[in-house]
Amino acid sequence: MSKKLPDLSKAELDILKILWEKSPLSIREVHNKIPSEYGWAYSTTKTMMDRMLKKGYLQRSNFHGVNIYNTLISKPAGLARFVNFFATKVLETDVSQVVGMFTGGHSLSEDEVKELEILLQRLEKGETID
Description:
The protein has helices spanning 10-21, 27-33, 42-55, 75-91, 95-103, 110-124, and strands spanning 25-26, 58-63, 66-71.
């Protein structure tokens, strides 16, 4: 059984979304794509990504002297963690109501929505997900 990963924050999700779109990327490349609403310095992005590395969300490798990062969790698994946290802790509602928001959009494929639903069911049962 894998270790249980903590819930994702919005900032962590935004970093993962950048890396899901294209990876591997350096910290500088991720920093340049961070939404301007954060107003982060480069050092803040580095700190966030170092923490995500320790949490097991990211993998770091070295390419010609530059550290580059990949995600270690799939898009549906990452979204499942965030949706579960958002639904239960923020909205205090049933997770299935929040999943409906993903079915009509273009951010997830039909297969990814199905995987998200399965992962959320597992989280509701107290199971761990990778």
